[in-house]
Design goal:
The structure is a single chain. The chain has about 450 residues and is α/β, with parallel strands linked by helices. The chain has two domains: about 250 residues, Aldehyde Dehydrogenase, Chain A, domain 1 (3-Layer(aba) Sandwich), CATH 3.40.605; about 170 residues, Aldehyde Dehydrogenase, Chain A, domain 2 (3-Layer(aba) Sandwich), CATH 3.40.309.10. Helices cover about 40% and strands about 20% of the residues. A hairpin with a 2-residue loop joins strand 3 and strand 4. Helix 1 crosses helix 7, helix 2 crosses helix 6 and helix 3 crosses helix 4. The longest helix has 23 residues. It starts with 5 loop residues before the first strand and ends in a 6-residue tail after the last strand. The relative contact order is 0.14. The chain binds NADPH dihydro-nicotinamide-adenine-dinucleotide phosphate. The site of NADPH dihydro-nicotinamide-adenine-dinucleotide phosphate has 27 residues, from helix 7 and helix 8. NADPH dihydro-nicotinamide-adenine-dinucleotide phosphate (NDP) binds next to helix 7 and helix 8.
Length: about 450
C-alpha cells in the first residue's frame, strides 16, 4: 500500500524512481486555500494590463525552459520527446493567449429605458484545478491560466503519478514575478487532497479532467455547495471513413496511438465503409508493424510506454490472448509497454468497442451507409471528438451535424487548439475550455442598472 504522506514518481519506461514528493492532506489544502484567498484579492485589483504583463513574463520564462520541462515530462510520463516539447510550448502559448484575454474581458451595455445597463465579468475567487496524468502540462495549463488571467487564484492538484512538471511551472511563475500563493501546486492523492479541494467552502469553482466515474463524484460533491464545475471526461471517439475517402490519411495510426493512446480524443473506433474494409485491414497491419515503440527520450521513437502498471493491466484486460487483432511490436523488460493494436473481431456492443481503454488499442468495425455510420458513431455514452473522411461536401456537412460530439474534424485528425473551444457532449463532460470564451468560465456576470432619472425628490 502506498504511503499517504508521499508520492513516488516512477519513470514509466524504466520503472526507476525519478523523485519522491510530499503528498498534501486536507490540512495542507486548507492552508493553501487561505493563502490563495489573500493573494487573489490584490491580483483581482490590479489593472488588467498589469496582470497581462505578468502573465506574458511567465510565458517568456516558460519559453526559456521548454527543453527542461519537456525532458521532465519524458521522465515522469514517458511521453516522446517531440510530444513533450509540444506540450511545454502549448503551456507557453496558452499563457500568451490568456494574457490578451485579461485585457479583453469586456462587459456589455444593454439598452434599457430610464438609464444605462452594464455588465461586468467579476473573478470567482479561488479556483481548484484537478489534472490527470495523460497530458500533465497542457491540462494543468488549460484549467489554470485562463482562471489566473480572469483575476482568480488557482490551487492545482496534479495526478499522483505526474506532479513534477506542474511543480516546476509554479516555480517558474514565481521566477517570472507572479505574486506568491497566486498559483499553488499541491501534489497529493485524489481521494485525500482532491476531495478536500472539491469540498472546501472557499474554493469557488472546480475544473476536473479525468475518468467519467470520478467526474460524476466530483460533480455530486460540488452540487452540495452549488459550486460550478467544468468537467473534461472520457471519450470513445469515432473515425468514420467513407468509401470515397483518402484511405491513407484517414487511417493514420497516430490518430489513436499518439501518447500511447492515453488521449481522451483518440479515434479508437475506426468505422470503415464495407467496400474498403479489407483494404483498411491490410493497410493497418502494415502501419502498426512500422510504428517505432521504445525509449521516449530517443528522437526517433514514435510511441512510448503506458503511464503505470495499473494502466497496463487495464489495457491488457481488453485484449485477451485469443483476440482477433493486428499488432505491432513493443519492448520487453522493465517499463509499462503495450504494442499498437487494432481489434478486428469485435461486435459494436462489446466492452472493447464501447469503453474507454486509454491505451494503444482501437477497434475496426464495418458500416453499410451514411445512416449506419451515424448510428454507430452515436452509439456510445461519450461525445468528445471524432473524425470523418469523405470527398462529398454535402455528406461531410450532414454527418458533422448528426454526430453528437464537441470536437469534430473533417478530412483531418486535427488535435486541440488553444484558441478554439474544447469539451464534450453527453458523458464526456460539462462546459468548455480554451477558445475565445475561456476566461468567462472563471467569472460571474454582474448586471448593474444606473438610473438617469435622478434621485427621487
Ligand atoms: P482519475 O479520474 O481517477 O484521475 C484524475 C484526477 O482526479 C487525478 O488527479 C486524481 O488523483 C484525481 N482524483 C481521483 N479521485 C478523486 C476524487 N475522489 N476526488 C477528487 N479528485 C480525484 O483517473 P485515473 O488516473 O484513475 O485513470 C483511470 C481512467 O480514467 C483511465 O484509464 C481513462 O480511461 C480515464 N482518464 C481520462 C482522462 C481524460 O483526459 N479524459 C484523463 C485520465 C484518465 P490521483 O492521481 O491521486 O488518482
Amino acid at each position: 500500500m502506498s504511503d499517504p504522506h508521499e508520492l513516488k514518481v516512477l519513470n514509466p519506461a524504466t520503472e526507476q524512481v525519478v523523485a519522491t514528493v510530499p503528498a498534501a492532506d486536507a490540512a495542507d489544502v486548507d492552508a493553501a486555500v487561505v493563502r490563495a484567498t489573500r493573494a487573489r484579492t490584490a491580483w483581482a485589483a490590479l489593472p488588467p494590463a498589469d496582470r497581462a504583463r505578468l502573465l506574458r513574463r511567465f510565458a517568456d520564462t516558460v519559453d526559456a525552459h521548454v527543453e527542461e520541462l519537456a525532458l521532465l515530462e519524458v521522465r515522469e510520463a514517458g511521453h516522446t520527446l517531440g510530444n513533450a516539447r509540444w506540450e511545454a510550448g502549448n503551456a507557453r502559448d496558452l499563457l500568451l493567449y490568456a494574457a490578451g484575454g485579461a485585457e479583453r474581458l469586456l462587459g456589455r451595455q444593454i439598452p434599457v429605458p430610464g438609464g444605462w445597463d452594464v455588465t461586468f465579468h467579476e473573478p470567482l475567487g479561488v479556483v481548484g484545478v484537478i489534472a490527470p496524468w495523460n497530458f500533465p502540462m497542457p491540462i494543468a495549463a488549460w484549467g489554470s491560466f485562463p482562471a489566473l488571467a480572469a483575476g482568480n487564484a488557482v490551487v492545482l492538484k496534479p495526478a499522483e503519478t505526474t506532479p513534477l512538471t506542474a511543480l516546476r511551472l509554479a516555480e517558474l511563475a514565481l521566477e517570472a514575478g507572479l505574486p506568491e500563493h497566486l498559483f499553488q501546486v499541491l501534489p497529493g492523492y485524489g481521494d485525500i487532497a482532491g476531495r478536500a479541494l472539491v469540498d472546501h467552502p472557499d474554493v469557488a469553482k472546480i475544473v476536473f479532467t479525468g475518468a467519467t466515474r470520478t467526474g460524476r463524484e466530483v460533480m455530486e460533491r460540488c452540487a452540495r455547495q452549488v459550486k460550478p464545475v467544468t468537467l473534461e471526461l472520457g471519450g470513445k471517439s469515432p473515425n468514420i471513413v467513407f468509401a470515397d475517402a483518402d484511405l491513407k490519411a484517414a487511417l493514420d495510426p497516430f490518430s489513436f496511438l499518439d501518447n500511447a493512446g492515453q488521449d481522451c480524443c483518440a479515434r479508437t473506433r475506426i468505422l470503415v465503409q464495407e467496400p474498403l474494409f479489407e483494404e483498411a485491414r491490410a493497410f493497418l497491419a502494415d502501419a502498426l508493424a512500422a510504428v517505432v515503440v521504445g525509449d521516449p527520450a530517443d528522437e526517433k521513437t514514435q510511441m512510448g510506454p503506458l503511464i503505470s502498471r495499473r494502466q497496463l493491466d487495464r489495457v491488457r484486460s481488453y485484449v485477451p490472448e485469443d483476440a482477433q487483432a493486428l499488432s505491432g511490436a513493443a519492448p520487453d523488460g522493465p517499463g509499462f509497454w503495450f504494442p499498437p493494436t487494432v481489434l478486428t473481431g469485435e461486435r459494436p456492443d462489446s466492452p472493447a468497442a464501447r469503453e474507454e481503454i486509454f491505451g494503444p488499442v482501437a477497434v475496426l468495425l464495418p458500416f453499410t451507409d451514411e445512416a449506419d455510420a451515424i448510428r454507430l458513431a452515436n452509439d456510445t455514452p461519450y461525445g468528445l471528438s471524432g473524425s470523418l473522411w469523405t470527398r462529398d461536401i454535402g455528406r461531410a456537412l450532414r454527418v458533422s451535424q448528426a454526430v453528437r460530439a464537441g470536437n469534430l474534424s473533417v478530412n483531418s485528425h486535427s488535435s486541440v487548439r488553444y484558441w478554439t473551444p474544447f469539451g464534450g457532449f453527453k458523458q464526456s463532460g460539462l462546459g468548455r475550455e480554451l477558445g475565445p470564451d475561456a476566461l468567462t468560465a472563471f467569472t460571474e456576470t454582474k448586471n448593474v442598472f444606473i438610473s438617469t432619472e435622478g434621485p427621487a425628490q
